[in-house]
Write a structure and sequence with these properties.
The complex is a heterodimer of chains A (275) and B (207).
Chain A (H helix, E strand, L loop, with lengths): L1 H14 L1 H26 L6 H13 L30 E3 L4 E3 L1 H11 L5 H4 L13 H11 L13 H14 L10 H5 L5 E2 L2 E2 L6 H7 L5 E3 L4 E3 L1 H11 L10 H13 L9 E3 L1
Parallel strand pairs in A: 5-7
Antiparallel strand pairs in A: 1-2, 3-4, 5-6
Helix pairs in contact in A: 3-6, 4-6, 7-11, 9-11
Chain B lengths: L2 H20 L8 H9 L15 H8 L6 H12 L14 H9 L50 H12 L21 H12 L9
The chains are: A mainly alpha (275), B mainly alpha (207).
Chain lengths: 275, 207
């Protein structure tokens, strides 16, 4: 029995030697990234995203906009000004807006209604270019997410409007379009796959969604800034050869609601750290 | 003893995924289309057609890329009819250009206009091809020694050309872009990609 196993193993090693070399190199790269993550975990204050989180807190509390008021009366779902744990229950249906909203869409609403900003201006260039810091709304969203860090995703998503939005999100996740026929599912609907050497999370599987969704907003080492979830989706659609996804659009909220639903019970560890 | 429950589990898994394939969306027709149109309000004119789906995209999306047989047959027939063949009847171009094409992911993103150079095929994003390139993706099958394993047969050369031109003609609801039909690559570029896989002197076919 043992010798059969040994021969089988030898045959496998021979046949797969070419793949073996690549896997060994991939494993090295993965290990190095994992070491980097571990070092950051041991010293949580080394995540540069926390600077943006602090900036976000200050922005939340500072009187701003044409009406010169702070966001401290903004209701994120748990009552005006209540921030701790609010992100863990988003997206949710807001009666005042008669819409389901994720954290960034809700901030757009509060900045328009409370502070008097023009929402159309806020969504014009809402995301930073490479090397630039996350914009103000994104910094505030990062702080709000951080205020739920350590908690688990617990959005109920049981209101009829919330259910509609989650179903739409799932539909959009599988919707193929553009000259490359891509959908979210092209890259995120199977386990253990990668683009080049970059691993891809299987987001249609709650087990994997629970592991990664809670890391957003995240500091991205490759672009040296915090990327919010709305920005992450915008970037996916860019890669899918689609036009520019509007921040706060129903489609963006629906996808975030679907992903959050998939991640229910997963821990929030925001801001996370990505390649 | 241990084998029996495993077999039962496998059957259950297969039955489960078959049921999933039949699952229809609960979203009323038109809602997703309207949401997509509204989500890209600033789309330049040349991008607007990208917001809509053709029949194949619709059928693949609705079935989560697992269409029932009659739908799959219809997709295959329709997509095969779109394939244009090289005027000179030759399918094999230059493997060196094919390798460059396989490495290059440029093209058709909203930051790629006006185009600065020809589009790439970005084959390595999803496929292993040569042994030398270790940074390859795994969304698609390995194509290492693709031609050698098929004895460089003429029929296989044509089949590769067709697969790259329109993957759905071979595998309905394939994840691979329809490079020829959707004008991502030119006929000459597709011939170069075919050469990378099917030329006996291509590094893809070396040990």
């Amino acid at each position: 029995m043992k010798s059969t196993t040994a021969i089988f193993a030898a045959v496998c090693i021979g046949a797969l030697s070419a793949i073996g070399v690549a896997i060994a190199q991939d494993a090295e790269t993965e290990k190095a990234i994992e070491r980097y993550r571990q070092m950051l975990k041991e010293d949580p204050w080394s995540n540069p995203g926390l600077l943006d989180s602090d900036r976000g807190e200050a922005l939340w509390k500072t009187p701003r906009g044409p009406k010169n008021v702070s966001l401290e009366q903004c209701d994120l779902g748990k009552g005006p000004g209540k921030v701790e744990g609010a992100f863990a229950e988003l997206p949710r249906y807001f009666k005042d807006a008669d819409r389901v909203m994720d954290v960034e869409t809700r901030l757009l609403w509060c900045m328009e209604k409370l502070q008097g900003f023009n929402a159309a201006d806020l969504v014009k260039r809402p995301h930073p270019g490479g090397g630039q810091p996350v914009k103000e709304l994104g910094a505030i969203a990062t702080w709000i997410a951080n205020q739920s860090s350590g908690q688990k995703f617990a959005a109920k998503l049981d209101h009829p409007k919330e259910k509609e939005v989650v179903a739409l999100g799932e539909d959009l996740f599988f919707r193929r379009s553009g000259p490359f026929d891509f959908s979210c599912a092209t890259c995120h609907a199977a386990e253990g796959l990668r683009i080049r050497l970059q691993g891809l999370p299987y987001l249609a599987d709650p087990k994997e969604a629970r592991k990664v969704v809670g890391e957003w907003p995240a500091y991205r080492v490759s672009s040296t800034h915090v990327m919010t979830m709305q920005h992450r989706l915008y970037d996916c659609y860019w890669q899918m050869r689609m036009p520019e996804l509007q921040m706060g659009s129903d489609a963006s909220v629906a996808l975030i609601a679907y992903l959050t639903k998939q991640a229910t019970g997963g821990e929030i560890a925001a801001p996370g750290l990505k390649r | 003893m241990k084998k029996l429950p495993l077999a039962i589990v496998s059957v259950a898994v297969i039955a489960g995924s078959a049921a999933l394939a039949q699952q229809k969306s609960t979203v009323p027709p038109g809602v997703a289309d309207a949401a997509i149109k509204a989500a890209f309000p600033g789309a330049p004119e040349q991008f607007v057609p990208r917001l809509s789906q053709d029949e194949t995209m619709k059928q693949c999306s609705a079935s989560h890329n697992n269409p029932p047989k009659e739908v799959a047959d219809a997709i295959q027939k329709r997509e095969k009819a779109t394939i244009e063949y090289p005027a000179d009847g030759k399918f094999i171009g230059d493997w060196k250009k094919g390798e460059a094409l396989a490495q290059n992911g440029y093209g058709m993103r909203f930051t790629d206009y006006p185009p600065a150079r020809a589009n790439g095929g970005n084959c390595y994003a999803c496929h292993q091809i040569t042994k030398q390139e270790v940074s390859y993706g795994t969304l698609g099958p390995s194509l290492y020694q693709y031609g050698k394993l098929r004895d460089f047969k003429e029929a296989e050369v044509k089949a590769v050309y067709e697969k790259i031109y329109n993957s759905h003609a071979a595998l309905p609801c394939s994840n691979m872009p329809r490079f020829g039909t959707n004008k991502v690559l030119t006929i000459e570029q597709i011939k170069d990609a075919v050469a990378l896989l099917m030329s006996p002197d291509s590094p893809a076919n070396k040990d």
